[in-house]
Amino acid sequence: MNQISKPSKILNSCLGWNKVRADLLSFFIVAQLKIRTVNLTEIAVAMPGRAWTASEYKRRQRFFAGSDFSMDSIATLIVRSLPISDEIWDLSMDRTDWKSGKLNINPLVPGIIHLSVAFLIIWITFSWRGCSSMIERIELIERFIKIFSADKIKCLFGDREFIGG
Fold first, then answer.
1. What is the phi/psi pair of residue 5, to 5°?
2. Residue 156: which H helix or E strand, with range?
3. Is the separation of the CB atoms in 124 and 58 below 8 Å?
4. Across 13-58, where does the E strand assignment appear?
5. Is residue 85 within 8 Å of residue 119, measured between CB atoms?
């Protein structure tokens, strides 16, 4: 139980969940790290308690089917879990363009730079190939500011594709 107390408190404060739901997700995360998979059947084996594996599996299915994870809450959760929450951040802005069969995967992502690593916490995806518009980039940064405030941003870095007013 000790290994889930800190994650449970963070989940509770970021997502506003009750203790039981926060503990359940904390146990799930710890089990996932131990088992090293996202397969619910295998994670069910690593869950504490005396319930049958099939019961734990169904419990996880119900949990995820009935949970509403807002992207903004998850972004807050990620930042609070990192050793950067008290800092003023340099941000990067990047966009990439992949194709999976006929599906275009085109995310636009700001990242918080810490120790030469960009932590990607929010994004928007487009169903087309090619560049984003200045309006879309502004909307994404405004969303970032709404979650974390403009006071957290020291600088924003971007490639030459991000020119604009």
1. -65, -45
2. strand 153-158
3. no
4. none
5. no
- Residue 3 pLDDT: 67
**Mean per-residue pLDDT over the chain, rounded:** 81
Per the CB < 8 A criterion, the answer to whether 118 and 112 are in contact is: yes
CATH 3.10.20 domain residues, the chain: 73-162
Instruction: Using alpha carbons, select from 70, 72, 118 the residue that is nearest to residue 95.
Output: 118
* Reported pTM: 0.67
Residue type, 161: E
73-162 fold: Ubiquitin-like (UB roll) (3.10.20)
Q: Give the Å distances, CA to CA, from 113 to 14, 74, 79, 97.
A: 21, 18, 12, 21
Give yes or no for a contact between 112 and 121, defined as CB atoms under 8 angstroms apart: yes
Whole-number pLDDT of residue 18: 77
Q: Residue 85 in 3-state DSSP?
A: coil
CA–CA separation, 41 vs 110, rounded Å? 34
Q: Which of 101, 81, 98, 100 is nearest to 109 (CA)?
A: 98
Output the six-digit token pair for 15.
Answer: 């997502």
Q: At CA 56, angle to CA 50 and CA 57, rounded to 5? A: 150
